[in-house]
Amino acid sequence: MIGDRIRQARLAAGLTLGALGDKVGVTHTAIQKYEKGTMTPPSSQLLKLARACGIRVEYFFRTHKVELLEPEFRKLATFGKAAQEALKIKVLDRIEKRVELLGFFPESPLLRFDSHIALPERVTGLDQLEGLADQVRDAWKLGLNPIGDLTDTLETRGLLVIVVDEENSGFSGLTAMARTLNGHMYPVVAVSSRWPGDRQRFTLAHELGHLLLSGRLDAQIDEEKACDRFAGAFLAPKAAAVQLLGQSRRGLEWQELYALKHEFGLSMAGWLQRAKQCGVITNAVHLAMWRRFSSKGWRKAEPGDPVQREHPRLFEQLVYRALGEQYVSESKAAELLGIPMMRFHKERQLESVDAAAHQ
Fold first, then answer.
1. Rounded CA gap, 220 and 137, in Å?
2. Which domains does the chain have, with CATH numbers?
3. d(Cα 322, Cα 101) in Å, to the nearest integer?
């Protein structure tokens, strides 16, 4: 078990056998023997291995094994097999902590994810996804208002949202099912922590589309286009778009799109697309505006302040809930959060918040 964990930690850190050996002062052969289980590293070496891989030493002894079933990447060709394996290990590490935490509760504090929200059996056209997105919003009692915290909205309904630090811009998103040793299944959605908030939110909604639309699309419908359409309609419902933009327009102002971007967390490009999809502007107006949008260089980086990034908070809140209910000890809470005990004590007593308030 420790050998597997060493290998996983090395791959997640993007290190070769030789590179890890150099960092801890042993040969690549020794690292290979550690990973194969033919040689067990002493505790002092485990500490060095943990530091070199950027993890806590407890990782090597964690026993909550989780399997990632049928992971589906949304990616470019630049995000190759090695990068995919490293990212899967990062995701698994975070899932294992969540599964371990949920196991401390007598009853799960999360709803079971329901992918059958009275949705139609077959989707035969992209326009049908407008109503489907509205159905999901209605089932989750979201109304037509902007979704302030999309991560929290998804997690409280049973999805495990994982935000990973991924440098490779070829990674767009990941969906999978996580299966525990006792057979429990959790849907997983992963995005990069380095993206601006509007890209994170669209990707999360897109990946939700994959989970909900699986097995429902007619053969002639492109699944990626369908999930894009669902994501736009879920983040900015047609009724809200028409109410805010008007039923028919000869053109749109950039300031309008910028304001709506920050209100709904959907990019300016996304709002331009929604205006066309909802019939507010014609295809010709959309094409002309898109050409001007592109000529300004906004396809790569939109102007003004970025949308605030998504930050999963439910896991941390549940750690403190478990501590308050005495399901876990202080040391276990600190281990789950991945922080030293001294920092944990300060944060538990809100000392860091008090210090910031007096600066």
1. 26
2. 1-61 (1.10.260.40), 66-309 (no CATH), 314-357 (no CATH)
3. 8
CA–CA gap between residue 160 and residue 175 (Å, rounded)? 10
Q: What percent of the chain has pLDDT over 90?
A: 56
**CA–CA gap between residue 257 and residue 266 (Å, rounded):** 9
Average pLDDT over residues 70-77: 86
Handedness of CA 199, 203, 209, 214 (dihedral sign): positive
In whole angstroms, what is the distance from residue 157 CA to residue 33 CA?
Answer: 43
* Stretch among 81-90, 142-151, 203-212, 295-304 having the lowest mean pLDDT: 81-90
What count of other Cβ atoms lies within 10 Å of the Cβ of residue 325? Answer: 12
Q: Name the nearest CA neighbour of 101 among 325, 352, 340.
A: 325
Pick the closest to residue 298 from 263, 264, 271 (CA basis): 271
To the nearest 10°, the Cα dihedral for 124, 129, 131, 136? 120
User: Max Cα separation, the chain?
Assistant: 72
d(CA 285, CA 245): 14
Q: What is the pLDDT of residue 101?
A: 92
Look-up of token digits 């009275």:
118
Residue 64: its pLDDT value, please?
63
Query: How confident is the model at residue 63, as a pLDDT?
Result: 66
Cα distance between residue 149 and residue 152, in whole Å: 6
| Three-class secondary structure of residue 95 per DSSP | helix
* CA distance linking residue 101 with residue 78, whole number of Å: 35
Res. 99 pLDDT band, cuts 50 70 90:
confident
Three-class secondary structure of residue 247 per DSSP:
coil
Nearest to residue 54, comparing CAs of 8, 2, 4, 92? 8
DSSP assignment of 287-342, as one string?
HHHHHHHHHTTTTTS-SSSPPPPP---HHHHHHHHHHHTTSS-HHHHHHHHT--HH
Which of 16-30, 75-89, 208-222, 229-243 is predicted most confidently? 229-243
**Residue 356 clears pLDDT 50, i.e. is over it:** no
Cα three-residue angle 275-276-281, rounded to 5 degrees: 80
